[in-house]
Amino acid sequence: MLKMARLFKTYLVCILSAIAVCTLSAEDGLMPFRGAWIATVANIDWPSQEAVGNTEKQQEEMIFLLDSLHAIGINAIIFQVRPTADALYRSNYEPVSHWLTGKQGVWNSDDQMVNGKCQNSKCFDPLQWTIDQAHKRHMEVHVWLNPYRVNLAKTDTSMISADHIFRKHPEWFWEYNKQWYFDPGLDVTREWICTIVQDIVSRYDIQAIHMDDYFYPYPAGKLQIPDAETFAKYPRGFTDIRDWRRNNVNLAIQAISSTIRECKDSIQFGISPFGVWRNASVDSTGSATQAGITNYDDLYADIRLWIRSGWIDYVLPQLYWEIGKKVADYEILAHWWANEVRGTKCKLYIGMAPYRLEGAKKDTPWGQGNEISRQMRLNRTIPEISGECFYSTRPLLRNPRGVCDTIKEIYKK
Cβ distance 368 to 323 under 8 Å? Predict the structure, then answer.
């Protein structure tokens, strides 16, 4: 009964929010997709370490980023608001990020909250404020969430606040390579992630929920993922733990997709996976690559299934390699992903790496000519590719090898 009551409450909240919240109109939506990631984890893009805990400085920095991106033709930002099961927004469930305020769970002194409500006119909601600023510039906001990660290896658990779900339900988590993760094999963790998604979707005028390549952790040598006990307890009919892990992530993606659609169908769900699904040496339908890590075999992310099942609205593979790279050729992969979305409703954008231009040696592809220009021009010869996204904003705006000028020139045509 309690679960049914909760589902009804969630449905009612979503219906009311869909009516009450205005969205970016179709006329404002600019195509093709021209995006940039704004990473907040470890203060990569925003806010700077100097601006931590300083609302005014944070607003100044975000305005600079948005104005600078808009000036070169970017029409969408992918804004990271949940890097480690924390929040760079006014969450009803998770503590404010220490990368925003300096201490997890503690807002700036002039931004205090009581029972989820601002107590004064200076109360700052970073996400709402950024949405307002982006929409003024006719830019979409895609909210970027990391589903399982709780901390980074360099930030131990002592910084996790007392009211974090990690403290309340330690049995929901396991540790791998000095980092803690939600256990993907538990139903309660999927329910928790969906609760976070529903909360954001119902309260904010965003254009998409976005997740990147961090599902199961990247392999650390021969270190084993500590989920054998969960597998033994909840096998769900599987006998191979690898298939079970993939199914865990499949269930999460399907549930998140349903949560979004039931709440506000206009909001997209996008995934930015590692650039290689599987190598052809393992699966004849995979790409002609020799990647040491793949989505399917190592991260347990079956992106192909998500595309074909209609669970995601766009896929944005991270093709951070140059054209002609022996083990992972950008051109080969661009065509492979184009073939994957052909005949489906899933849109294809390409994740690109202007950060690799910084300090590139002259005898490398990134230090010769203009690799980003070559890749963007190649994209325009593949009909299924309908946009790009650049990782990440700060390196991009430092304009290595004149990349901003290149992007602006291409987008003007």
Answer: no
